[in-house]
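Quick one:
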Amino acid sequence: MTAAPSFPAAHLPVLLDEVIDALAPVAGEIHVDGTFGAGGYTRAILATGAHVYAFDRDPDAIAEGAALADAEAGLTLVPDRFSHMVQALADRGVGAIDGVTLDIGVSSMQFDRAERGFSFQSDGPLDMRMEQEGESAADFLNTADETVIANVIYDYGEEPKSRRIARAIVAARPLARTAELAAVVRKATGYKPHDKKDPATRTFQAIRIHLNRELGELEDGLAAAERVLKPGGRLAVVTFHSLEDRIVKRFLRDRSGAAPQGSRHLPTIAADAPMPSFETVAKPVRAGEAELTRNPRARSATLRVARRTAAPVMGEAA
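Output:
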């Protein structure tokens, strides 16, 4: 029996046992880990004898995974976004695969490194770029129109005081450090040290999601998974907030044929309705108390699992 992989406390993969149970990888299968990060899910899948194509858009994750790739013949690192998996796999001679795993959002590696600028827990540059190129958080906040900033904070942070925060950000320009931004948000929202939740959390989340196009990437990645999974292939997606989970829930509802089809008063019957391309195989899974004790970051995590059917990609003819 292969020993279970161990991980530093800061990089515990969330819902690891549940994800591996859902994927049920076996020797000889081909899996995609769309969010390699510190390699938590990848290591566990490799331990079963399956081959893993591990994607990550962050150059640091790819560089730090090189030693694992050198040691594991069954691992192929792919420095790319998981939304590009169809073409990236085709370029490597890979067609249909057996499983896709997506762990959405910022990785613990990114979050814990002050120099990456994803968190205000330690002061660092206002960066937040997963790919370490393109527009940074500082670039966006120091140049964008106040209305644009407010809309980003409201749409992606679900922050009711978004206009007040955006006005304060524009008045405080130029901003360069995470501590500066957090202080501006706290002052604008009337935060007190004894308040339960720091309001800067929602603003940081919103800016990060906007800069990295995270929700669009998730939508594209789910559609890509639909294309690469073979009949019987498994999809496991871990999300950490309602915006992400809503997208996954809607995708699986639509692809499994579970979307509302009218009522007895107004029936909707379409003879040519497409066959479901996925079937859900379990209820949403959340972390138990034992895992929450080990890894408090699992508290907001939700795992959704589905199995690919033999139907063509929804919307395409057989």
